[in-house]
Amino acid sequence: MGVLGLESVVAEARTVFESGKTRSFEWRKSQLEALLRLLQEKEDEMCKVLKQDLGKHRVEAYRDEVGALKKTLDNALLNLKKWMSPEPVSLPLIAFPTVAEIVSEPLGVVLVFSSWNFPLGIALEPLIGAIASGNAAVLKPSELAPATSALLASEVPKYLDFEAIKVIQGGPQVAEQLLELKWDKIFFTGSARVGRIVMTAAAKHLTPVTLELGGKCPAIFDSLKSARDKKVAVERLAGGKWGSCLGQACIGIDYLLVEEKYAATLVELLKGVIKKFFSNSEHLARIVNKQHFQRLCDLLQDRSVAASIVHGGSVNPEKLFIEPTILLDPPLDAEIMTEEIFGPLLPIITLKKIEDSVEFIRARPKPLVIYGFTNDEKLRKRIVEETSSGCILFNDALIQYVCDTIPFGGVGQSGFGQYHGKFSFDNFSNRKPVARRSFILELSFRYPPWNAKKFQLIRHICRFDYFSFVLCLLGLKRHNYRSSVEVW
Amino acid sequence: METLVNDLRRSFQTGKTMPYEWRVAQMEGILRLMNEREKEIMEALWTDLAKPRTEAYLHEISLSKAGCKFALKELKNWMKPEKVPSLIATFSSTAQIVPEPLGVVLVISAWNYPFALTIDPLIGAVAAGNAMVLKPSEVAPSTSAFFAKFLPQYVDTSCIQVVEGGVTETTELLEQKWDKIFYTGSGRVGRIVMAAAAKHLTPVALELGGKCPVVFDSDVNLKVAVKRMAIGKWGCNNGQACIAPDYIITTKSFAPKLVDALKETLKEFYGENPLESADLSRIVSSNHFRRLTDFLDEENIPEKIVHGGGRDEKHLKIAPTVLLDVPHDSLIMKDEIFGPLLPIITVEKLEDSFDLINSRPKPLAAYLFSKNKRLEEKFVQKVSAGGILINDVALHVANPHLPFGGVGESGTGAYHGKFSFDAFSHKKAVLSRGYATEMRIRARYPPYTHHKQIILRRVIDGSFIALFLGLFGLHRD
């Protein structure tokens, strides 16, 4: 589609928005219900395209994308009326008689860019927020997950109001063209490099943006007393690395930090878990494309990096598969430790003592999430108070993604803006304060010409000194304010 | 500049801005500054803007003091983590949202309320535990110099710095890496700020302006309504305020009455010779003076003036001026006026005003004077603005319980009260699980057997009963 084609598509969305159609509760509810129907009726097709684009097993596809979206929709439908109602605001006595509330209104026509690793989930989660808050929306799914993109482009218009919700397919060129148009909000999930491009383009129109980026999400592995806890922790760790999209997740565990005396045990435990859960590559996703496959292989090219491999390392270029790989203390200045891995390579960095992990993490860009496998209250406190990240999760991995009551988003290099649950609704809303006054009470000292008495009354009111105010009003208090800046 | 930012970052990383006591000490310092230096502040405001003493006190000092006291009172609550429920899918977990400072922030303020617009964000940044650089506007040089000279005496300079300067210094500041930039000013510069921030992926809050419309119904207490509107316009830095009424929309039939009421009120407030009234701020600079007189001197405009129009170039004063029915495409209706000129646009019926307003960039505030509840509801529903005030003007600025900020061209982000604290915080989700409730079946992990799939679906779909049955193998396909 040429630029003009794009422009007219977007213009149509704007016309529909301006007609007011998308604001009603009924419209929003109908769209969310339609999406739910889409997910229910096309579940098979969706799992199929996720298998095609990323080799995701059906269970993974359902757990991480289809099922998660259903949960989001159920939650949104349940709470929509509440989210839409104005919030009353309490005001101080001096504002009497004023009544105030905060009214949420849609921003207008929003643009959603989604990434390739959860091509369904990351496309529709923000869209759900945009719809719930009454916006018209244009979605540009990632071209690196082409089957999913095509499915969205064909099915969304069938189920949803195609005049107000548009899916536009394409690559960087189309994205660039879209970025030249004026939006009321842009929601971007992807890399920091492209995030900068998006924000720079948005600046031309003063369009607010949300950037969901990535980073190197560390997992701190503390010694755990009970063998059972250790077992469960290692399993969750492994699941948090390889279980979702084979490590290609912004919230996936990037690397591990462990005390050197436990490293060997941890490696053995991990090897056991990998064998138990991940020996069948059919139950794991694959690398998305040749380019990323090559990128990951290149990370292992460095001789000292290759030498640090303690498990795995084999690659299958035809199947675009790299087996779960563990590295023990690769050099910290190698690319595998300076860039986000986004793949099934797991560096384990050993420390003298586990508390050093706090310093280690602080010295690096703020990640999207920090995982802490520890029951040590002191260490937990230090992690919460001395590090900064989008989120912190103790004793598990990835599940924060499905918790609708906490905000999901980054900080620093991992992005800004939050969503999920009501945070999605707020993300795409303008929270507009509305204050109403009546004509009943009128205070004449509000108006010029100014004199010393009026000034004194104002001073009392501003200090909430109602008593002095009344005395002054009744002429029973002297105004004795003096200033060298005498204007009267 | 880089050294300055690095030093601030080092200070921040020592953790000294985190404790409640540090933040309170800074805010108490700021309060002391306002109490002890009131004279110097008023003098600076008089020099920069010829701001009438009452206005300077009311709008800048007292509001800032109130904001500071409010923050001091509420800070403990604001700093507390917020517990939130977690759901079945993440069963047996506790969740909370912990606010933390963003780090080292940059606050750039505007010239029209040079004191308040620096202090307000400063309070928010400090309350949230950040280190910061304040760059007051060079267009209000006395106030800027005031901050540079006095603020360091009252706050921790290892974490709070004032940088004075104009375009060069600001550009240099914008090249540094910040954890947040808070900018108050024009849309033109707002774009530059955001583009510079994009290079470092720095989030921004932009408090910009716009043409704040006032829709005037005939069914009002006219005297009171006009007084409130007039004080909101000319009593706010002589119209040089982002939330001052920019233009009025009223019905053709009501316009003459409105004009008469305005004339009367203006005479009452500012006398026969408003150019000599001490109760009106002057225009801030000769550039802005010329900008405003250009509005008045455009072709076909002078005959639309129904009141005022007087000017004193030497003293940079322009009298309150009312115009009636200027063309919609005239200069005065295109750009934000930011001055004492008030055009009145007439329509056949008031509902037409909503489309008129919505056809323009979204303003920072929109006002309606009316007793008609239905009209009021429609106004709130249809007009998109940073804030809406019915039957008064500008007051919502003073309320710390209401978020203050724009939308669209009028900006992004909000502040005042707790919103200031939030504007400079990162709300970090902290989720915690135990190990006890891991299901034996390990449904989460591959290999994905049929049984596991069923369990997983039950968990995700959030059905307790189905999950329960599933766990015990009591399920149907």
UniProtKB/TrEMBL annotation, chain A:
The keyword Nucleotide-binding does not apply. Transmembrane segments: none annotated. One of its GO terms (cellular component) is cytoplasm. One of its GO terms (molecular function) is aldehyde dehydrogenase (NAD+) activity. The keyword Plastid does not apply. It catalyses: an aldehyde + NAD(+) + H2O = a carboxylate + NADH + 2 H(+). The active site is at E212, C250. Belongs to the aldehyde dehydrogenase family. This is Aldehyde dehydrogenase. It comes from Rhynchospora tenuis. SUPFAM superfamilies: ALDH-like (SSF53720). Residues 7-433 form the Aldehyde dehydrogenase domain. Gene3D superfamilies: Aldehyde Dehydrogenase, Chain A, domain 1, Aldehyde Dehydrogenase, Chain A, domain 2. InterPro entries: Ald_DH/histidinol_DH, Ald_DH_C, Ald_DH_N, Aldehyde_DH_dom, Aldehyde_DH_NAD(P). Keywords: NAD, Oxidoreductase. It comes from the Eukaryota. Pfam families: Aldedh. GO terms for biological process: aldehyde metabolic process; response to abscisic acid.
TrEMBL record, chain B:
InterPro entries: Ald_DH/histidinol_DH, Ald_DH_C, Ald_DH_N, Aldehyde_DH_dom, Aldehyde_DH_NAD(P). GO terms for molecular function: aldehyde dehydrogenase (NAD+) activity. The active site is at E207, C242. One of its GO terms (cellular component) is cytoplasm. It catalyses: an aldehyde + NAD(+) + H2O = a carboxylate + NADH + 2 H(+). Belongs to the aldehyde dehydrogenase family. This is Aldehyde dehydrogenase. It comes from Rhynchospora tenuis.
